[in-house]
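Table 4 source record.
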Amino acid sequence: MSETEARKLTPEEIKQVKALGCLQDKRYADIFNVRVITRNGRITAQEHRVIADAAEKFGSGVVTMTVRLTLEIQGVKYDDIPALREYLSQHGLETGGTGAKVRPVVSCKGTTCQYGLIDTYDLSEKIHKEFYEGYHDVKLPHKFKIAVGGCPNNCVKPDLNDLGVIGQRIPVVDLEKCRGCKKCQVELNCPIKVAKVVDGKVFIDPAQCNHCGRCKGKCLFNAISYENGYKIYIGGRWGKKTAMGKPLSKIFTTEDEVMEVVEKAICLFRDEGIQGERFADTVNRLGMEYVEQKLLGE
């Protein structure tokens, strides 16, 4: 359809459907790409079929994937948006993922990956239900993006999100068991070359270790035990302006602790953020010391 044949939409009409996850194709006046929420990039085979059918019924037959793992049905006419959303709703699917609110959560494969240290699907599903769905009507100063990574490989870039969670496996050395092997298997298997044998004992600099856990099971004398946990970064962002997230000083040990910090961060942004600023700007303006006190305090 040419631009002249398309029905001219008002800015208010475009804004209303954008809030529903329908983004205008800039080439046309009344054609939209509609985002379907996938719950952390994971959907069933049947849901795939429903989305494919919807793309053929109401769109151009093309489905694309966004960088945050939602699916977009391409080429939907403005007048067909209600019917498309109703069709998806009948099969348990919804559109959305836009606006100044908590955005759909992104996670990696977690424990289904050889390097995964935490169940990212379980945690991200809880965050999705509690804060994407539960806080759907909570207006924030800007969008708020959350990512959950299973290990320090950072595949989903948790430290470049407004809030990111990274699985941790923290080594604890028992010096009495360490025999200072000439070919220390912990040292040889450390991917970032932090573990070293110093003065006859293995030393893992806690300031340099990224807690990937790749040395687990390598020591022949069981000189190292491990504590699992979650590292939280706040104030990351990418786009026209980027910022590396800042880690909180505490390593958290339970999902409940993580959920509490996520809630505090969102509420802090809601209450003390300035309209139009990202959480990274809020953290910089208020100061990391103040923000950490708010997130870790009672």
